[in-house]
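Exam revision sheet. Question 4 asks you to relate a sequence to its structure. Input first:
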Amino acid sequence: MTEDEMRKKLATLRIEHRDLDAAIAALAEADGPDQLRVARLKKRKLALRDQISMIEDYLTPDIIA
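Answer key, structure tokens:
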């Protein structure tokens, strides 16, 4: 995967992460939130955060001080 492809993937993952955040908030505000659905969305959100962190770490060069 090239650096450009990784940056595009990173942008896509960030958008999906943001969308999940909005979906979780909307479910929490609804009457009688579906706790199982909320838990699954939160788990997916955490997995996305891990993928985002991995790509960011790869794209950010190590600086030796």
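Marking note for examiners. Helices lie at 3-29, 35-59.
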